[in-house]
Structures are given as structure tokens and as C-alpha cells.
Design a protein that fits this description.
Layout (H helix, E strand, L loop, with lengths): L1 H10 L3 H17 L13 E3 L2 E3 L3 E3 L10 H5 L5 E7 L12 E4 L4 E4 L7 H11 L5 E6 L10 H12 L5 E5 L14 H22 L5 E5 L5 H13 L4 E4 L20 E4 L3 H15 L4 E5 L5 H9 L4 E4 L1 H6 L2 H21 L1
Parallel strand pairs: 3-4, 3-13, 4-7, 7-8, 8-9, 9-10, 10-12, 12-13
Antiparallel strand pairs: 1-2, 5-6, 6-11
Helix pairs in contact: 5-6, 6-7, 7-8, 9-11
């Protein structure tokens, strides 16, 4: 309700300014001791060897620098994913780089992995008191040559390992030039082999095996889906997140800002992301967990992802248009689906 009142004011601002202001406003009551945890009963979920209090998480990209973890955790999420973080700080692409398409309930962004780098990111996390399920999304710096990308991912994995509940390997943002080439069969196999071997060494060192997730694009051909599934299986990757933003403009043709470069998110990509999710589910046959993201603006959309094969779901663009009420709505919808499934199995 409060967000519905505030939204016209926020939408009057530049989208990136509104984004930053919203996070600052979320932090303010926390600093004053006025922010309470949202108590929405959810059905617990086990995935990637982890226990989640509910199936609804925050997608990476909203809190790139892990600077607002405590405030966001109080919205009722079952888990948070922060980042994308790169080894060195980088400003990202020039502004403006975030655009609303309200008629389509969509966003286009070309942020470009803007973040404070590993040092600042980990300093922010050290200040957070929340100890729920935390995913950390890692990427490469824009100026790191593609044939050296593995060095960046390895550096990130090693540095964030002790703090993460799971680590997401982001090879699917359309806003870092050439990044999606890492989804190619040979490149992906080499990257996952290196990170899986590093993960084993880190597990021995820390006495704890941190799950790895892979975030993929929604525009995957059947052969690409199978190649990704084979690589995930071969290297023991624990989850696949489907899907990142889209380079397609299907569903937003003719709208203001539709021609802007960047990744499209929100309602127009829901069907495409869900189809990719379902294809991965068929290829993986339950051998790795699936996290559904893309176009969730109602509780029924979260259930749609679960029906397509996801164990967990994530929100981002829907929060811009619906606000925090979307979190509780999705938790309730997922809980009801779990209840009905349990009743049917008795």
C-alpha cells in the first residue's frame, strides 16, 4: 500500500536515481530501529544442499554492492543474491543506462557490472548482521580479455567463498562486451572445470562446500541448452538460474525507450525465460536445482516457474512495479502450491 502511494513520486525521477533513493529509504528505518522483519509463513525448501525458509529470493542486480542486505532481508525473502561483483571497481556504462517501459511493466538496463569491486563489496558484507541464505553473483571486469576471464572468476570465487551460502557464475549479462561467448561449449567447459577444481580446494581449506550456480541467458537454442546441461552435470554445478535479461525486443516494439541498448527484463520476457527454464529441466532431469527468474509480477507467475521445473524463484523488475507486497504474495502462492502437492501425494 505504501509503495503504491510512493511509486508515482519515484517514477517521476530518473530510474537510476529512484533506485538508489529507494534503497536509502529502505535503510533509514533500519538505522532508527523501526524496521521489522516481514513475517510471512512460507513452505521451507531444500536445494543445493541448503535449507531455505521459503522459495522466494531477491535476484542479483538490485543490491550490486551488498550495501543494503539487512534492510532487504526484512522484506521476507527466503534468500538474497547480491552482486554482480568484479575483482576491481568499475563505473559501468555511461548514464543514462536504466529505462522504464511502464506500459509493458518492463525495464531495459545497460548498467555494465558497475560495482565497488571485491574489497568494498566484502567490507559492506562485513557490516551486515543478517545470516540467512546469501548468494553472491560474480563476473569479470569489462577490460579483462575474454581468454583471461577465468582469472577474474577465480579471484572472485576465492575472495567471496567464506561469506557466501552459494556463488553464482554470471556469464549471461548482455552489457559486458563478449561475455555471453562464455556460454559456448568449449569456453563454458573450460571455465566450469577451473572453478569446480578451485571450489574443491577451497572446500578442503574452509571445511565447507559452497554450492555453485550458473546464470544463463533466455535466448538459448536447443543445442545450447543441452551443452549447458552436459557441462553443469560434468562439473558438479549445483544450480542453474534461468534466465538473465534479454536482447530481444519482442513485446515492447514501438514503446518509448524500446530501442535502447541493453537487457530487457519484466513481463515481456516471462514466457521466454520460463520456456528456457523448462528446457533446462528436461535436459538436467533433476540432477541440478533450477532457479526461475524473469517476468514475475504476480504470485501465479512464481508458481508458473515452479511448475516449469524450478525449486526456487527470484524477483527484481516486479519489485519496481509492485513493491514489497510482491514478496509476500509470491511466498503465499508458493506455500499454497506446496500444500496442494503434499495433499495430493497422501
Amino acid at each position: 500500500m505504501l509503495y503504491a502511494l510512493a511509486r508515482p513520486l519515484l517514477f517521476a525521477l530518473d530510474p537510476e536515481t529512484a533506485h538508489a533513493l529507494t534503497l536509502e529509504l529502505a535503510d533509514a528505518p533500519l538505522r532508527l530501529g523501526l524496521l521489522r522483519v516481514a513475517r510471512v509463513p512460507g513452505a521451507p525448501v531444500r536445494a543445493m544442499g541448503l535449507e531455505f525458509p521459503n522459495a522466494v529470493g531477491l535476484a542479483a542486480g538490485l543490491d550490486k554492492n551488498a550495501a543494503h542486505v539487512d534492510a532487504l532481508a526484512r522484506l521476507g525473502f527466503g534468500f538474497l543474491e547480491v552482486g554482480t561483483v568484479t575483482p576491481r571497481p568499475q563505473p559501468g556504462n555511461p548514464r543514462p543506462r536504466l529505462f522504464r517501459l511502464p506500459a509493458a511493466q518492463a525495464l531495459i538496463n545497460r548498467m555494465g557490472f558497475n560495482n565497488v569491486g571485491l574489497d568494498g563489496f566484502l567490507e559492506n558484507l562485513a557490516r551486515a548482521s543478517w545470516r540467512g541464505v546469501l548468494g553472491i553473483n560474480i563476473g569479470k571486469n569489462f577490460d579483462t580479455p575474454l581468454d583471461q576471464a577465468g582469472d577474474d572468476y577465480a579471484a572472485c570465487l576465492e575472495r567471496v567463498y567464506a561469506r557466501a551460502s552459494y556463488v553464482t557464475i554470471n556469464i549471461s549479462s548482455p552489457n559486458t562486451q563478449g561475455l555471453r561467448a562464455l556460454q559456448g561449449k568449449d569456453q563454458l567447459d573450460a571455465l566450469l572445470a577451473r572453478l569446480a577444481a578451485l571450489r574443491q580446494r577451497l572446500a578442503d581449506r574452509h571445511g565447507r562446500r559452497v554450492p555453485l550456480a550458473l546464470k544463463v541467458a533466455p535466448e538459448l537454442e536447443p543445442a545450447q541448452v543441452q551443452a549447458i546441461a552436459d557441462a553443469v552435470r560434468r562439473h558438479g554445478i549445483d544450480a542453474v538460474i534461468a534466465a538473465n535479461t534479454s536482447v530481444s525486443r519482442e513485446g515492447v516494439e514501438g514503446l518509448a525507450h524500446a530501442g535502447e541498448a541493453g537487457g530487457l527484463s519484466g513481463a515481456p520476457i516471462r514466457a521466454r525465460a520460463t520456456a528456457t527454464l523448462a528446457a533446462l529441466a528436461a535436459a538436467l532431469k533433476g540432477e541440478s536445482a533450477l532457479i526461475g527468474v524473469g517476468g514475475i509480477l504476480r504470485g501465479e507467475h512464481a508458481v508458473e516457474k515452479l511448475a516449469a521445473g524450478a525449486t526456487l524463484v527470484q524477483l527484481y523488475t516486479g519489485l519496481v512495479y509492485r513493491g514489497p507486497d510482491l514478496v509476500s504474495e509470491c511466498i503465499s502462492a508458493c506455500r499454497e502450491r506446496s500444500r496442494m502437492a503434499s495433499s495430493a501425494s497422501r
